[in-house]
Every structure is written in C-alpha cells, then in structure tokens.
C-alpha cells in the first residue's frame, strides 16, 4: 500500500481526533496489573494498538471487541512464564510496558525489548534502574530482559529522568510494592496523567501525575474499572492536522474533541508561523490567510514543544522559507530531511549542538514539488503527507506502515476536508 496526494487543494472542514496512541499503549499494558476485566473506549485503529493486543493475547489475555474503538480486556489468565515472541515484541517500542506490568503483578517478568521507529538511541537503562531500585534483579542477554525478585518489591525514591516510558513502567512495577515509591523528575506528559487516572480508577494510589514528582503508595489488589475508561484525545494527531491547515493558503481546519490545554505549545508555534488559531470549547480552528513566517523552535518534554511535532512543523517552516527546529530529545529524528529534499525542500541539518541536539534549518522558501518519497518513521511520514498537500503535482508516499502505526485513517480524515489523497494498493 502507498498513499498518493495531488497537492495544492485548499482544505476546509472538521476532523474528529482519535484516542491518543501514547496513552492507550501504556493503558492496554496496565490492564495486566488488574487481574480482571477492563472495558476501554476511544481506542484508535492503529497498528501499534493491533500489535499490543497481539502481545497481550500471546501473554494470555482475552480480548473482545465490543464496538468501534471499544475493547474488553480480560487479564485473569495472564501467564507470567510465557516469553512473547521476539519479532512480535520488536514491532513496537511500547512493548517494554509488558515488563513493568508483569513485574508489578507477579514479581517477575521476561521479555524482549527492542523495536520502534528509528529516531535515535532507545535504551531502557532508566527503566531497568527503576525496577532494580524497587528490589528486582535485571539480567539482559541478547535483548531478552529477565526480571526476578527474592522478596516483595519495596517503594523507593527513583529518578524518572523525564522519560515518558520509564516513568510509566516504573509506576506499573510500583503499584503493588510495599510502602511508597516517589518518582522524581517524572515525565509530565498528558499521557502519564491519563495512565495514572486509569490505574487510580482501578484502585491504585498514584498522586502527582502531571507534575515532576509522582508518589505511588503500594496497594494489595486492583479491581476492574466500574465504568468503561475513555482514553484522552491524541494531541499529536490533532497537531498534525492543525499543521495541514497551513499547507495551502485559504485553508481552514477545525480539529474536534481535543483538550486545548494539551495543545498550548503547538498552538503558540503555529501562531508564530502566522496561522490564525481560535479555540471554542473542545474544538480548535486553524486558518491560513497569507504568507507564513519563520520561527525558531526547540523540542522539550511537556509542557514544552513536543518532539513528535518536529517534522510536521518543519514542513511549515520550509514553506515559510526560514526558521529552525532544534531537536533535543531524539538523536536521529532527521531521516525525513532527505525525503523532503526529493520534493525540492530547502532544508539542512546542522549537527553541531552536542550529543543529542541537532538543528534543522529551512534555508529558503520551498516551492515543494511532488515526488516519490519514503516514510522513514511515524512522524517523518506524517510530515511527508503534509508536504504532499502543499506540493505541486503528485506525491507518492511509500513505506506507509510507519504512518499506520500512529494515525487512525489519515487518508479518510484528510479527504473529508477536501484533500485529493488516496490509497494505492501496490505491492512494495
Ligand atoms: N532514554 C534513555 N534511557 C531510557 C529511556 C529513555 O536514555 O531508559 C532517552 C531516550 O533515548 C530519549 C529520551 O530519553 O533520548 C526520551 O525518551 P522517552 O523515554 O521519554 O521516550 P519513550 O518513552 O521511548 C515516548 C513516545 C515517543 C515520544 C517520546 C518523547 C511512546 C510509545 N513513545 O517514547 O513517541 O517521542 O516519548 O515524548 O510513548 C511517537 O509517537 O512518534 C514517538 C516516538
């Protein structure tokens, strides 16, 4: 499959936003801690969810689809002895949450840790240090992580290093630990809050999620949520479609059912780029009337500007002809640059800022032209779709499996607002 876009069309209309990928994934794995039945709503139809469900099923969960985006997950028969297939675990980065969840429930866990978009080094040393601080022993050999305990896990003070994954993985392991675990330098992302809310409605005692200090008082058992749990809307999907409104002058897109607070740093950047942004309750409208302006952006953990919006905003800066993004989170989130260059983008990477950070600069107004390009990772792939909307002629985006990991029917949603975009059923 590939995606083709005939660019240059003004976009106008409303786009409903799906549940958030980076919230739903830890929540799905957190059901392992429940030892019961959970109903979860607003689950996006993306391949990372599909693969998470395959992993959970392989570990012994029973999953039933109750309706569109609604799943019933029964984790009573999870088997801590099963080592889920390495290839399946490697389909996604978030499979590392299985380790924290199994450790939290059974006091032991074995699983492979690898996979995810190739956007830089993705070690799990913070996760493992956290598990060890709770009293587990970690042995890693050929990417197989084995976690064991000789006595019940005990609460401790643990550094989360502002890492999204390690904050939630450590929290999972700590949910049943004796005493209190304090995660300092915890990630403050909205998905961490949603994950903590989910566990709290199941009986966990987690306070402070959304701040940099999270305290988890160990509880004996968790129970099924009384009501179905609804996942928060995806701030990155929303941000991506808000950028789409900037691709062609005269466009106007309203993203529906978002949490405006989560969008603040993205909105601030879009305003600096010259887009008009208006908020109306849970909807945000973005309009482009006239030329775009350059600006300089640096990615940072929440509430800073999200790294997961970097490539999409860079397309706007290419159209503006000036501006830069300094990438501070991922050491190699730059493969999209060469693909954008195939579309005649004037863009350069300057890798002179230190170990992790690199600056990407728009070096002159880009009149983007349609080309055959490859999605090299999820957000870089989304940026190519955006560039295709702006480009003259036809853009063909290949390797779209990356895009399907995190965008729930991006083609249909863009078609709804007038884009000339379609799937092509071609063997790659
Ligand atoms: N890091 C370490 N050691 C660790 C963990 C992280 O050195 O043990 C480093 C990473 O190499 C990176 C930084 O810390 O440089 C931040 O990593 P973090 O742990 O926060 O990232 P993650 O949990 O692996 C999640 C999202 C990413 C998103 C980042 C940052 C999921 C499944 N993935 O990754 O999402 O970019 O947080 O916000 O939640 C995406 O959706 O496109 C995506 C890549």
Output the strand order for the largest sheet. Answer: 21-22-1-23
Radius of gyration over all CA atoms, rounded: 21 Å
Residue share in helix: 25-40%
Which structural class do the helices and strands define?
Answer: alpha+beta
- Oligomeric state of the chains present here: single chain
Uncertain parts: none
Overall residue-averaged pLDDT value: 95
Distance between the termini: 7 Å
How many strands appear in the DSSP assignment?
A: 23
Form type: globular
Strand content range: 15-25%
Q: Quick one: biggest sheet?
A: 4 strands, mixed
**What is the number of helices?**
14
Bound molecules: uridine-diphosphate-2(N-acetylglucosaminyl) butyric acid
Structural account:
There is one protein chain. The chain has 428 residues and is an alpha+beta fold. It has helices spanning 21-30, 47-58, 86-89, 97-106, 125-133, 164-174, 190-201, 235-244, 264-272, 310-320, 335-342, 378-390, 401-404, 410-416; strands at 2-6, 12-16, 37-41, 62-67, 70-74, 109-112, 137-141, 144-148, 157-159, 180-184, 205-207, 213-217, 229-230, 252-256, 276-280, 283-287, 296-298, 323-327, 347-350, 358-362, 372-374, 394-398, 420-424. The strands form six sheets. Strands 21-22-1-23 form a four-stranded mixed beta sheet, covered by helices on one side. Strands 2-14-16-15 form a four-stranded mixed beta sheet. A four-stranded mixed beta sheet has the order 4-5-3-13, covered by helices on one side. The longest helix has 13 residues, at 378-390. The mean pLDDT is 95. The structure holds uridine-diphosphate-2(N-acetylglucosaminyl) butyric acid.
């Amino acid at each position: 499959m590939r995606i083709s876009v005939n660019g240059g069309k003004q976009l106008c209309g409303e786009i409903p936003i799906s549940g958030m990928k980076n919230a739903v994934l830890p929540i799905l794995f957190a059901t392992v801690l429940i030892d019961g039945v959970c109903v979860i709503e607003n689950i996006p139809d993306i391949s990372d969810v599909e693969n998470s469900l395959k992993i959970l099923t392989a570990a012994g969960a029973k999953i039933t689809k109750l309706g569109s985006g609604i799943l019933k997950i029964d984790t009573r028969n999870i088997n801590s002895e099963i080592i889920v297939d390495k290839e399946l675990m490697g389909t996604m980065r978030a499979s590392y949450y299985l380790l924290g969840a199994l450790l939290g429930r059974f006091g032991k866990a074995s699983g492979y840790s690898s996979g995810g978009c190739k956007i830089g080094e993705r070690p799990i040393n913070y996760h493992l240090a956290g598990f060890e601080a709770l009293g587990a022993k970690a042995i890693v050999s050929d990417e197989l992580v084995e976690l064991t305990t000789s006595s019940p896990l005990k609460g401790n003070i643990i550094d989360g290093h502002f890492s999204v994954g390690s904050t939630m993985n450590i929290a999972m392991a700590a949910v049943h630990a004796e005493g209190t675990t304090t995660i300092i330098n915890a990630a403050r992302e909205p998905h961490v809050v949603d994950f903590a809310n989910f566990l709290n409605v199941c009986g966990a005692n987690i306070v402070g999620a959304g701040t940099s200090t999270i305290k988890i008082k160990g509880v004996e058992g968790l129970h099924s949520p009384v009501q179905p749990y609804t996942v928060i809307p995806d701030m990155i999907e929303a941000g991506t479609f808000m950028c789409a409104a900037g691709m062609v002058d005269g466009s106007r897109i309203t993203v529906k059912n978002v949490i405006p607070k989560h969008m603040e740093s993205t909105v601030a950047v879009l305003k600096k780029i010259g887009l008009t942004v208006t908020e109306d309750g849970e909807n945000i409208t973005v309009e482009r009337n006239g030329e775009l302006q350059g600006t300089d952006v640096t990615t940072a953990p929440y509430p800073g500007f999200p790294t997961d919006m970097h490539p999409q905003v860079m397309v706007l800066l290419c159209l503006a002809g000036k501006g830069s993004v300094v990438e501070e989170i991922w050491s190699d989130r730059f493969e999209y640059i060469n693909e954008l260059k195939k579309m005649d983008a004037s863009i350069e990477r300057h890798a002179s800022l230190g170990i992790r950070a690199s600056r990407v600069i728009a070096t002159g107004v880009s009149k983007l032209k349609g080309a055959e390009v490859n999605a090299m990772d999820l957000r870089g792939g989304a940026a190519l779709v955006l560039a295709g909307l702006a480009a003259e002629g036809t853009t063909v985006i290949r390797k779209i499996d990356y895009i399907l990991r995190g965008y729930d029917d991006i083609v249909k949603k863009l078609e709804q607002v007038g884009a000339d975009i379609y799937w092509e059923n071609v063997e790659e």
